[in-house]
Amino acid sequence: MITVTFYCKNDELVGFQSEGHAGYDKSGKDIVCAAVSVLVFTTINAIKDLTQDAFSGEEDGKRAVVELLITEEKPSERAGVLLEAFRIGIEGVAKGNSRYLRVISKEV
Predict the structure, then answer these.
(1) Which of 5, 69, 83, 97 is 20 to 30 A (C-alpha) from 58?
(2) Which residue, among 66, 35, 72, has the nearest Cα to 51 in the 3D structure?
(3) Is 16 helix (H, G, I), strand (E, B) or coil?
């Protein structure tokens, strides 16, 4: 199962962590994993390329962990929109795939 944890600070989305493997199908055919991966890496690249927000991150292929956390006092408006779009996408994937994808929120 993949767990996506949304990091919130004062009720504002400031980052996320994706951890685990979906187990929907075998490697290379797992559409849940593919959907989550596309959303995760598109969001990271968009924040990197389209904003000037500083962020920390982690990518550990062995543990199947990817993390992004905005290190600014508050995310820019653009970064906030990108993070909210990511949340919408992840929650959409989770709706029909709750056996393979869990979504939680955590105050940081």
Answers:
(1) 97
(2) 72
(3) strand
The model's pLDDT over 74-95, given as tens digits with 9 standing for 90+, comes to 999 999 999 999 999 999 999 9
Of 55, 58, 54, which Cα lies nearest the Cα of 67? 58
Q: What is the separation, in whole angstroms, between the first and last Cα of the chain?
A: 23
Amino acid occupying residue 55: F
Total length of the chain:
108
Helices marked H in 7-100: 31-50, 77-95
> Measured between alpha carbons, how far is 3 from 95 in angstroms, rounded to an integer?
14
Assessment of whether the complete model's pTM goes beyond 0.70: yes
